[in-house]
Amino acid sequence: MAGIAVDHARGSAITDVDGNTLIDIIGGIGVNGLGHSHPKWIKAVQDQVALSSVGSFTSPARVQLLERLSENAPGPGMNRLQMYSGGSEAVESALRLAKSYTKRTEFVSFWGAFHGKTLGSLSLMGSEFKQDLGPMPPGNLSVPYANCYRCPLQKKPSDCGMACVELAKKQIKMNSSGKIAAVVVEPMQGTAGNVIPPDEFLPAVQDLAKNLGALLIVDEMITGFGRTGKFWGSQHSGIQPDIVTLGKQFGGGFPVSAVLSRDEIVMSKPWGNPSGSSSSYGGNPLAAVAVHASLKIIEDESLVENSRVVGAHFLKKLEALQDKYSFIDHAHGRGLFLGLEMVKNKKTKEPISKIAAHKIFDACLKRGLLTMAYSPSFRIQPAMTIDVATVDHVVEVLDEVFGVAEYGNWKDD
What we know:
Layout: E1 6-10, E2 13-16, E3 21-24, H1 27-30, H2 39-49, H3 60-70, E4 80-84, H4 87-102, E5 106-110, H5 119-122, E6 140-143, H6 163-175, E7 180-185, H7 201-212, E8 215-219, E9 243-246, E10 257-261, H8 263-266, H9 285-300, H10 303-324, E11 328-334, E12 337-342, H11 354-366, E13 369-370, E14 377-380, H12 388-407
Parallel strand pairs: 3-13, 5-6, 5-7, 7-8, 8-9
Antiparallel strand pairs: 1-2, 2-3, 4-10, 9-10, 11-12, 12-14
Helix pairs in contact: 2-9, 3-9, 10-12, 11-12
């Protein structure tokens, strides 16, 4: 889409083969938490590849990452980790684990959800992406997520009363066979537009799972490891997940993911059998050292705090753009998990066309800014190492492009 070929990248800057340098606020769709080619991460991976790189035997790096991760566990006893090579693989494993523990077969997920593109995780997806890819595996129910900007029930937060969760209860009662193994939820939805639910939503979802006798699987692929200004996205609402799926910036750019849970859950068979949860690439020495290096850099460089502070600065700048332009609405976010809605009308909230969004994307690109403005729900998730000066430059470019779009009436295209 961008039409560039990358030569090298450092921090928040990418240089293409023609020598053009661009500021990256896409962040590898949540992967690039450390910034491109962090020198400490590079050194750790280089040192490890000279020692060993293949196999799932225990290595010093794996022990170190487990110790470091346990210091920031998302709940009591969450110290059992199984590693994989990609997000979908981890989600598929989490579904198998939930079935093994509960001996049930059904799952609840949410409108707007994205958990991967393999068949089991695809069946959890709450979007039109699934069209023409069926049939889906049976036993999956999709219920409304608390996207308050575009409330599926046309409610206002002031009089909502978590109506979406109440509707979910009714949908499950009418459509389930009563065998719900787990409720699967993103603490904040990424693909749907970096949606931030109200703080009471996740506790209500946790209660829903408990009342169903089901596990709560929290997908922290995008929101984990400081992206939202807390180590875990779920910490903003204080819930206690039963299973957590990890990935994206977990490995600092290395393709690695994981499932995290408690002893009594992971021992469940058949998931807990020898090789019942294994992966050819899970936990190999390179993956382990990449994760440990990533976690150490996040801690040593206070990137969780940087996300919180710089993200708050970024959000204020975006709110100013919202006040300035007729088609920019709903500046929102937590930490460096941010977004804007680009609309034809702020009252109706009708999105601008994809043609108009692509014009904005192209205009940013020509000015040296790589964005996700190709969608009316404009997601912003730069490296957690980004600084205030870079953010200010990004906003200057956005201001210029939005001004051109406003003057040219691009929203009407």
